[in-house]
Amino acid sequence: MYNGRDMTELSMMSKMDWKNDELAFFHHSFQQIVPYLNAEGQAIQKEIVEEIQNRGGLKNLKNE
Length: 64
What we know:
- By secondary structure, the protein is mostly helical.
- 61% of the residues lie in helices and 0% in strands.
- It contains 4 helices and no strands.
- The chain has helices at residues 7-10, 20-32, 39-54, 58-63.
- The longest helix is centred in the last third of the chain and has 16 residues, at 39-54.
- The two termini are 17 Å apart.
- The mean pLDDT is 94.
């Protein structure tokens, strides 16, 4: 179970400053609600995916 900073705190930070487990958790969470995301939610999801890609993908997130 995720036990970290919530989206309120994280939304005030650059995605580059998020921890790997935060990126992985919120990526999974957003995947579950994709049909319900508004434009702002879609933009956040895109930023999360881009940061995961910048770090080498999901497999690299879980290995660190």
